[in-house]
Amino acid sequence: LAKSQGGQRYAFFDESLKQQLLNRVQVEADLRTAIKENQFILYYQPQVDLAKGRVTGLEALIRWQHPEKGLIPPNAFIPIAEQTGLITTLDTWSLREACRQLKEWQAAGLADVTVSVNLSAQQFQDSELLPLVATVLSETGLRPEHLDLEITESCAMSSPACAISIMQALTELGVSISIDDFGTGYSSLAYLKQFPIETLKIDRSFVMNIESDDKVASLCDSIAHLAHRLGLRVVAEGVETEEQLKFLVSSACDSVQGYFFSKPLPVASVLQFAHSFAWQQVGQPVTYFALD
Ligand code: C2E
Ligand code: MG
Ligand code: MG
Ligand code: MG
Fold this sequence. Notes:
By secondary structure, the protein is an alpha/beta fold. The protein has twelve helices and eleven strands. It has helices at 2-36, 78-84, 87-107, 121-125, 129-140, 153-158, 160-173, 189-192, 204-207, 214-229, 242-250, 267-276; strands spanning 40-49, 54-66, 70-72, 114-118, 147-152, 176-182, 199-202, 233-237, 255-257, 277-278, 289-290. The strands form two sheets. An eight-stranded mixed barrel has the order 1-2-4-5-6-7-8-9, surrounded by four helices. The longest helix has 35 residues, at 2-36. It is globular. Bound molecules: ligand C2E and magnesium ion (3 copies). One magnesium ion binds next to loops. Residues 24-278 form the EAL domain. This is cyclic-guanylate-specific phosphodiesterase.
């Protein structure tokens, strides 16, 4: 009996592994076609500066417009793009497209807004990154202070000494750097203070538990204070509720990003949102409103 069960388990395992491999091979082939046929688009999620009460940042988030499967979120293809090395092609496209798009919005009257672009670890460590960023800025005419590059905490910490020198070179170009998903990696505080970065983004996994877990709330509060002591800005990601927002206001978070204010928006909706959005904090309780 044990033997036949073992055999079945093996067969089952083998089958699902085969499925995974087939899926990977299929997605990789599809991705190559998608790159050739330009099937990617960017959505932009507003970042609201709480002191200014307006949109001061837009995070560019890639989506795959699959001809049959519709809009595919990044989590469904970024891991495979990373495994196959296609990620640097996607990141290069996102960077160029986001800079071009912000420049176009600036021409339409959008002022004092920065675009944030996510970089994979591969792209961050690529020796071509610096010339690429410089070329994209000069091609698009975007001023470097309007470009922010997001790298994850785990990417920055995987080889901190290397990361510092890449970050230094990038900041010499005039762009700013944010540490994304902060709190999910294992930051050495000694390195954190040496990174020439501007912003820490508190990961959504913390923000979502602010109301249910006092310890998580204290952690968010501590991260915000730590960041400020290091002279960094703090952005909270994944803010969905008014309670979370109130807490983050009380922790002196600088900006928030999340469904409470806005989901990532298609290009056509961004200008109207940014122009009409206003948020005001009138004592307690916090009030907010979006004008139309
Ligand atoms: P991320 O950089 O941490 O981006 C934030 C993610 O959280 C986005 O998911 C966003 O839609 C989602 N989010 C924001 N606010 C909320 C909220 O209130 N509730 C919930 N449930 N989710 C919220 P998205 O767009 O699916 O992107 C997932 C990840 O894919 C990004 O995480 C980023 O790591 C990666 N990514 C996106 N675009 C690019 C790109 O161009 N290059 C690279 N290398 N990675 C990218
Ligand atoms: Mg990000
Ligand atoms: Mg993030
Ligand atoms: Mg995240």
